[in-house]
Amino acid sequence: MSKLQSTIKCAVLAAGILAMTPGCKVDVFPTDRYTEESIYNNAANMELYIAGMYAEFQKFQFGQFPIGYNNATDALTDIMKYTSSVAGNGTVNILATDASRVNAAGPQLNYWTDGYTRIRRINEFLQGLNKYAKVDEDTKKQYEAEARFIRGYCYFWLVKLHGSVVLLDNLDQYTTKEHQRSSEEDCYKFIAADFQFAAENLPKQWGTAKTGRATKGAAYGMLARTWLYAASIAEYDKKQFNQDELTGVTTANAQTYYQNAATAAEAVMDLADEGYHALESSFTSVFYNKNTKEALFKLDYVSPQLTHGFDLGNTPPRDAPGQSLVYGVPTAELVNEFERIDGTRFLWSNPVHAANPYENRDPRFYATILYNGSKWKNRTINTTPSDAIEGFAEYASTTEPRKTVTGYYIKKMLDSTNTTFVQNGSTQHWIEMRYAEVLLIHAEAKTKLNDINGAQQSLNKVRTRAGLPNTTASTVAQMMEAIEHERKVELAFEGHRYWDLRRWRKAHIVLNGVKFTGHRITGSTYEVVPADNVNRQFTPALYYIPIPAVELQNNLALTQIKGW
After folding, report:
1. Which residues contact 378 (CB under 8 A, 6 or more apart)?
2. How do residues 369-407 score in pLDDT, each as one tens digit?
3. Are 530 and 395 in contact (CB under 8 A)?
4. How far apart are CA 408 and CA 382, in angstroms?
5. Among 542, 433, 424, which residue's Cα sits nearest to residue 195?
6. 377 Rama class: left (phi>0) / alpha (psi -120 to 50) / beta
7. Quick one: how far is CA 26 from the chain centroid?
8. Which of 104, 143, 423, 463 is least crowded, fewest Cβ atoms below 10 Å from its Cβ?
9. What is the pLDDT of residues 355-368, one digit of tens each?
């Protein structure tokens, strides 16, 4: 049996474990006669193979990244603080405060091996599909579109991390182990081509038996996200932070890429006009309505076959005394970001605001944050130090406090009805791409194209759903400030903030030389206290994560990104 045959066979069997449901019938071939051709002659096997490829999205569910134990990239930023001070549960804190931990010997922000393993499997599928599949051309294109959607997603993560990576799109390239990186600009073009093909060949909607598969709207949404990133690098990087010949995007192309982002977003908006996508009337219901039209692409979970641990990792301690892990908690910086209901900025320096800081705030605040006095699961949350179970604990006073170190808990995406998550896990869905993000992408792209009216319209749709007045921003600078604010509160804990600050080239300013904070509450006093015990560090070199040194040894043509 060839290596490719063995790989396909393993992939099909793994996919079967992931995707098989009661009543499924799969023809089983004797292992001594299992051939590549037999895989693609069997429709059920092809379905299982492609279904198995979707497992890649689970690596990044709920804004997580494969570092430590369920660490979330938002905790590298100003909106979230992880409570643990030791590696594993607190790896993200170590990375946030010690830039030297990211190095070529073993960069902690590492997706290289996993990403390229999945890309190879996808390329194997694409070759088999083209050589052996006994399906009509439309069906073949649909399978290819799904595969390229997943491949585009893998490459998007690699490029977000490294900028310049190796592009592989067919198995013939694997005959040699020596490949140099492609330019960052060519990488974004490659990713965009995958999502464009997917958008043109995926259905607008699948039947109920295939929910959870990529759709036309998901592909256009990812295409819009890709072009926005490329445009941002073109505008903001300007080779200020790395002199590698292959990193960076041509500054002159920024406007073209912003237009591409706007066009892709408008394709999703057209689908919304046709009824396929929409903002939920309630912000809260986005994360719990299994049939939400706001989700362009989401992962569904079904107990007991497939569950997750978001509640176990983030719910307040009294939900499961001694077992709730309380990984990440909101910072005071995020809490302060939520406006007043009238659209004015919340200010602690305003005596009226400070007297009742949690009243009359942006409704998304109440859907996102559990604060002192919140009602939760038939009790009132007490985050004052007097509460030994759920009250404030100073960060690093113990290594694993398993309670808030900022005075706040996450509420967004927690399931208030789940009382058995310790034993049975959780099943609320994870949305990788939602319509609100598309509107924010469109608003940003339109702002950069100096179409302020168009940008305002998209931004105001998000604000209107939240119950807020229209934006007062009327210049490019004001609009960008408003968009950053909206992305910070609308997309909180969904894994965008770190990557936004990187693409805007603001991370070395916002995330460096500063301690983020919480509130220690005593009576009516809200004391600002550091949630970090040392300053955060983000050096300009971190805009391009180094390639793992072992990969340079395995691929002699591959050069390290300059600066590492």
Report:
1. none
2. 999 999 999 999 999 999 999 999 999 999 999 999 999
3. yes
4. 10
5. 433
6. left
7. 34
8. 423
9. 999 999 999 999 99
Contacts of 154 (CB under 8 A, 6+ apart): 56, 115, 118, 119, 122
Mean pLDDT along residues 467-486: 98
Q: Helix (H, G, I), strand (E, B), or coil: what is residue 359? A: coil
Helix (H, G, I), strand (E, B) or coil at 416: coil
b (16+ CB within 10 A) / e for 308-319: bbbbbbbbbbbb
Burial of 521 (0-12, 13-18, 19+ CB in 10 A): buried
Q: Name the residue among 90, 538, 60, 370 with its Cα closest to residue 82.
A: 90
* Residue reference for tokens 């809200």: 526
Structure tokens that stand for 218 in this block: 């998901």
- Give the Å distances, CA to CA, from 482 to 436, 486, 510: 15, 6, 17
Per the confidence metrics, is the pTM higher than 0.70? yes
- Could you identify the residue written with the tokens 């908006």? 269
Q: For the stretch 152-175, what's the b/e string if a residue is b when 16 or more beta carbons lie within 10 angstroms of its beta carbon?
A: bbbbbbbbbbbbbbbbbbeeeeee
Residues 6+ apart with CB under 8 A from 359: none
CA distances from 301 to 61, 78, 87, 217, 309 (A): 11, 30, 29, 21, 11
Looking up tokens 């790896």, which residue turns up? Answer: 91
Tokens found for residue 514: 């500063």
User: What does R_g of the chain's alpha carbons equal in angstroms?
Assistant: 24
C-alpha–C-alpha distance, residues 76 and 356, integer Å: 30
* CA distance between the termini of the chain: 41
The pLDDT-based confidence of 41 (bands split at 50, 70, 90) is confident
**C-beta of residue 19 within 8 angstroms of C-beta of residue 48:** yes
pLDDT tens-digit readout, 498-519: 999 999 999 999 999 999 999 9
DSSP conformation letters of 443-476: HHHHHHTT-HHHHHHHHHHHHHHHT-PPP---SH
* Nearest CA-CA partner of 248 in 330, 155, 182: 182
Is the Cβ–Cβ distance between 396 and 388 less than 8 Å?
no
Pairing between β-strand 375-376 and β-strand 379-380 as defined by DSSP bridges? antiparallel
- pLDDT tens profile 304-324: 999 999 999 999 999 999 999
User: Residues near 416 by Cβ (< 8 Å), separated by ≥ 6?
Assistant: 376, 377
Whether the Cβ atoms of residue 445 and residue 262 lie closer than 8 Å to each other: yes
Cβ 507 vs Cβ 481: under 8 Å: no
Work out the burial of residue 551: count CB atoms within 10 Å of its CB; fewer than 13 is exposed, 13-18 middle, 19 or more buried. Answer: middle
Task: Classify residue 339 by its DSSP letter.
Answer: P
